[in-house]
Amino acid sequence: MDQLQNMNFFASLILIFTSAAFTDNILLARFLGMCSCLAISKKVDNSIGLGGAVIFVTASTTAFNYLIYKYVLVPLGIEYLRLLIFIVIIAAFVQLLEMIVERFSEKLYYALGIFLPLITVNCAILGIALFMLNKPYSFWQAFAFGLGGGFGWFMAITLIGGIREKINESDLPKGLGGPAITLIIIGIMSLAFVGFSGMLKI
Amino acid sequence: MAYTPKQVFLNGIWLDNPVFRQVLGICSTLAVTNLLANTLFMCFGLIFTTTLSNLTISFLRDYIPKRIRMIVQVLIIACYVMIIDIIIKALAPDIHHFIGPYVGLITTNCIVMGRAEAFASQNKPLLSMYDGIASGVGYSLVLIFIASVREPLGFGTILGMTLPARDVWWHAWTIMIMPPGAFFMLGLFTWFARRWLTREVKR
Fold this sequence. Notes:
- The complex is a heterodimer of chains A (202) and B (203).
- In chain A, 73% of the residues lie in helices and 0% in strands.
- Chain A contains nine helices and no strands.
- Helices cover 72% and strands 2% of the residues of chain B.
- Classes of the chains: A mainly alpha (202), B mainly alpha (203).
- Chains A and B meet through helix 3, helix 5, helix 7 and helix 9 of A and helix 2, helix 4 and helix 9 of B.
């Protein structure tokens, strides 16, 4: 952690981004955002749409939550209210995003349907905000962490979507279709990502 | 539709089990099941939250405006999660250090939210409370089962106690305590549970 403080500004940002996206992948190593992932990842198109929305929301809310936590909650000594405050900020952002998507891409709006408001309860977003608090990040580092986490989620769900499109056409044993086979696929992918974890440690 | 309490319990625990039937609350299922002790605290937290939030939301169901009900529900749930977070921190600081973020994430646990939205906002308070308990117990049973497979295989212990004659026959199966092990275990469990369930329903 000390080495992070001594490092060049941009180098530390890139390092945090990569570690959040690959070695500490929010979906494959921290298990967050599974519910919407399992429900939406049937098709690549939808995966990309939801993934993009998640990147936007995580990056902006992580930065915003960081500011609120550091300059409002800590000085007032009310850190225990963080859950409440964070979830309200996230919900407000999602509402904003919903309006934007509805305005610009009607097709995507209907494809995502109920899952757009459900980004609010996507645990990846609140999870990234909570994990960020455990680390001594500066503002831009927190932003890079949020961006990296969102990107990691996007990448994972897109890859899973691609695999599921193929799997859906094959003949599976009874009961294995749907969530069960998807979990096993994610397990195999997660094995590959565990291989990354030796590369860098933050 | 009217439910009897018995039906509610049967649905929550087995027929409509939140984990392997409705595929909700997967995140914490995977994350906390590497040690049985963590799992027990997590289950305790979830049952507490889902029971009380279902009760509260059901009491308030006629007063919450439809348009903003999601945010109101989330706020009610977040209050209970804060309470349980503080309780676990006081009871078991070591365990809290590890599962802390995941306890906070009960707020966004889809089971709590899903039951509030699907059941508590349409049914009477007492019945909603039963539903909360049933879903919580259904979730807990799956978690305890998975944890009691992963911990012995990965660490060679159960609830921190060493297995008998561990040095003789036991060999660390490290994958079981890493993320992939969790995915494989839950995948297989879902497969078998669904297979069994479809057969039973047919009969």
